[in-house]
Each structure stands twice: as structure tokens, then as C-alpha cells.
Amino acid sequence: MTRKPAPESYRETVRRLAGAQKGAARSAPAYSRFVNRRIGRLLAAWAYRTGLSPNAVTGISALFTFTGIALLVLRPPSWGLGATVSACLVLGYGFDSADGQVARLTGTGSPAGEWLDHMVDATKVSALPLALTVGLHRFDVVDDVWLLVPLVGAVVGAVLFFGMILTEQLRRARGVASVASTEGRAPWLRSILVIPTDYGLLCLSFLLLGAPTVFFGVYTVITAATAGFLALAALKWYREIRGLSSVHDRRPVIPPTG
Prior knowledge:
Oligomer: single chain
Largest sheet: none
CATH superfamily: CDP-alcohol phosphotransferase transmembrane (TM) domain
Radius of gyration: 21 Å
Strand content: under 5%
């Protein structure tokens, strides 16, 4: 009679996930790269051992994220609200990293799962600053002219997300390798320099919501830095895609035979 192998421990699952985890993108900011990926790994190990599917993990991510976003509209700014919103957003971001790790560990990744993940991300990118705008106006936190800042943030976030996704898809369509890299090769200095554009930093900034003036000052700096990053990235992406188009156009055309 053969003995069944001992069940895998939580620590062993985490270790397996570390080996299966996708390389970090070169442009990934510090919190996303060094903190959120590890949080996601721990959450993914829990989800895997619980038997949750990648789509279920995406659903949990959406539940936490949109709960935090809704609270910005429903409740006036306070230290308690800020802590709750920040916790919801951080957990939502962690589970957002976990769903892909569960998919790779179980071999259940699919185009439909990737689509669902991106749709949730695209929604939160715009919904968060718009909810903040409504909340700031509803509870008369700042002068109305300052509401332009989160409105600009909504546009910047949506365009940046779309630009990253579209650029990556155009690279793949032309057989160009992804910019994703291994942990050892990704330049840590770049990760530090782009911290102001880090979604994780935005999540943590809501801890300051009890001091609205301080919070809004930090939020304005984050928005301005992200807009500047978008301008530079868009120029770089355009030049890169234009170069790919030129290479594609120079390929020899093989006449049909027969």
C-alpha cells in the first residue's frame, strides 16, 4: 500500500510561488516591485491552499478596491476613514498581484482571466480619482477649482494604463520581447526614482485623509509626477512603436507561389 505524500505547507507554497513568479517590469516602481509582489505572493499562497480560482481572486481584489473607493463618496474625511480606505486599496492591490500568481501556479491562466483582470484595473484607475472628486465636493473639503486635480488624475491614469497595455500588445504583435525582466536585472534605482507614480504610494497616501490639506498636497504632487511620467513615457513609446513599424515595413515581401 503506497502512502500519500504529505500535504504541502503554506511556507512551501510560498516558496514555489517565488520560483514561478513572473519577472518584474523594468519600469515597476519600488512599492509595486518590492512590497506588493511579496504581499501578493502571500495572498496567492492562501488562495491556492483555499482552492480559489484566479478569477475568484480577481473578484476579491475588486471587492476590496471598490469598497475603499465607495467609502470616499459616502463618508467625510477622517483618520479612521483614511486608514480604512488605505487598507482596502492595499489589500485590493495585493490580491491584484495574487491572481496572476495563482494562475501560473495552477496552470489555469486564460485570455478571459487576463481580460477580466485588466477590466477591473481600468475601472479602478478612473473610478478612484472620480470618487475622490465627488467626496471632496460633497463634504466641502477644498475649493471647487482644486477639484480639477483629481479630474486630471482620472484622465492621466486612464491614458497611462491604456498606453502601457497597447504598447505591450504592439510589441507582441511584432515579435518583440516584453520589457519584463528578472528581479536581478531590473534596475532598482529606476524603481526608486519613479516612486511618485506608484499606485501603492497612492494607496498609502489615504492614511493622511484625516489632515485633508496635507493629503491633498501629497495627492497633487503624485498627480503632477504621474502626468510628467506619462508625457515622457508617451514620447518614448511613440518612438519605439514608430521604429517597430519601420522595421516591419523593410521586411522583404515574398511573392506567392503557384
